[in-house]
């Protein structure tokens, strides 16, 4: 066992001394053997769902208030009294006045109103 130990140290020193020359070469070829169960690799989780961004609302536009409009009214004079220009309408056949008789085949006659006796 004591002989293996110096032999191992000597082999490692030779490998270290030759490793500089080995890496200076352009071609690096290696053969490897692997034992074990194949591993599928890193599994990426599904991405998070895409959410819409907050909506953009346009700035609020405020129009200045219109100045009040004042309407000048004329002087307060009493209106002139209206003359009595209304008439009663009389029908001969059938005999009567308008609100009580709706149709008059002979035509309506205008009558000046008279006070009730």
UniProtKB/TrEMBL annotation:
Name assigned to this protein: Uncharacterized protein
Species lineage: unclassified sequences, metagenomes, ecological metagenomes
């Amino acid at each position: 066992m004591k002989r293996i130990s110096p032999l191992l140290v000597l082999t490692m020193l030779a490998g270290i001394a030759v490793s500089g020359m080995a890496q200076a070469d352009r071609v690096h070829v290696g053969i490897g053997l692997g034992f074990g169960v194949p591993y599928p690799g890193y599994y990426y989780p599904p991405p998070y769902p895409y959410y819409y961004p907050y909506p953009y609302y346009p700035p609020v536009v405020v129009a200045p208030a219109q100045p009040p409009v004042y309407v000048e009214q004329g002087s307060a004079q009493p209106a002139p009294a209206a003359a009595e220009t209304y008439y009663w309408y009389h029908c001969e056949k059938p005999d009567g006045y308008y609100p009580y008789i709706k149709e008059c085949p002979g035509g309506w006659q205008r009558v000046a109103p008279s006070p009730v006796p």
